[in-house]
Amino acid sequence: MQTAIGREVRFCRKRHGMTLAELADAASVSLGMMSKIENGHISPSLATLQALAQALAVPLSSLLKRFEQERTAVFVKAGTGVEVGRRGTRAGHQYNLLGYIGSNTGGIFVEPYLITLTKDTDTFPLFQHAGMELLYLLEGEVSYRHGNSVYRLMPGDSLFFDADAPHGPDELVKLPIRFLSIISYGVGGGED
Predict the structure, then answer these.
(1) Torsion sign across C-alpha atoms 96, 161, 148, 187
(2) Digits of tens for pLDDT over the chain (192 positions)?
(3) Residues paired with 147 in a beta bridge
(4) Cis peptide leading into 169, omega within 30 of 0?
(5) Is the pTM of this model over 0.70?
(6) Distance from C-alpha of 71 to C-alpha of 32, rounded to nearest angstrom
(7) CA-to-CA distance for 147 and 164, rounded, in angstroms?
(8) CATH numbers and ranges of domains, the chain
């Protein structure tokens, strides 16, 4: 709790353009105590929190919001990701969604996929969608196109790119191919 409060005090102080010494003076708190509060080394009293809130011209509750805010985590056991249909599915790409977070992330959505390409995979027109994408090759070998460039990916290689440019497998070199694809986009983005 004290770490979350300290982060929020620091965030509010910086947003107001105040130095640590200025906030300490405005709240009638010693500079040493201010440092300990911001670094999460002590838990401030309610009176100290009230003084800080007044000095920062914010409601007291705003200093507690990071502590109160529920943080999201998604756990997926091996082999239990939800198989979903995306544009590449009809070309034999198997997509397993490994989780999805988007509600408390400031309008940023993240979709992690485990994608499998096998001998049944057809060539497919290039993909193009909003956001950023990270590929991490786990198995196999693939030549992957992004815009006018082609990258030869082998296990352990990654490719991070603007997904608005045409992209997709150019040549399936060594099958089966398995890679992680992590797509992030803002509100209104996602698959075209």
Answers:
(1) positive
(2) 778 888 889 888 888 899 999 999 999 999 999 999 988 888 888 889 889 989 998 888 778 766 555 556 666 777 766 666 655 545 567 777 777 665 455 567 888 888 888 887 776 678 888 889 999 999 999 999 999 999 999 999 999 999 999 999 999 999 999 999 999 887 655 554
(3) none
(4) no
(5) no
(6) 30
(7) 9
(8) 2-68 (1.10.260.40), 82-186 (2.60.120.10)
